[in-house]
Amino acid sequence: MDDQEAQKTFSKARSSIGSSIYQWRSRAANSSNPIERARTDKEAEFAFKQAFAFCPYSPEAVFHFMDLLLNENPRRVHDAVLLLETCHELDPCNDQFTYWMNQLKNSDLQR
């Protein structure tokens, strides 16, 4: 896809579905069923992967995906760092990705 605005739009839409439907449902107070929670977490991750594939330099898509990885049990800090390193390679001028990556690498979560 060559149209960057279209890529950003599709990414934003898919990321919004992942966070506002799947992730919300997984974290909702009434989601005490571990099977339901695992299913909705899996769907949220798939939505965020698709959003990332559409536009890997979209801070919104990356942030939601990173949030999911860091709030899973167990935390997937290494995966979040890999995600941010990929973003940094694709968009080295984006200070936000660099900041998040450095914060994670230097955090206690990494240890």
Structure report:
The chain is an all-alpha fold. The protein has 5 helices and no strands. The chain has helices at residues 4-27, 34-54, 59-71, 77-90, 95-105. The longest helix is centred in the N-terminal third of the chain and has 24 residues, at 4-27. The model has no long low-confidence stretch (mean pLDDT 86).
Mean residue pLDDT: 86
Extended strand count: 0
**Rg over CA atoms:** 14 Å
How much of the sequence is in beta strands? under 5%
- Summed up, the helix count is 5
Which outline best applies?
A: flat
Order of helices and strands: HHHHH
Span between N and C termini?
A: 39 Å
Helix content: over 70%
Low-confidence regions: none
The biggest beta sheet is recorded as:
none
Helix/strand structural class: mainly alpha
Please provide a brief summary of the model.
With 111 residues, this protein is mostly helical. Helix content is 75%, strand content 0%. It has five helices and no strands.
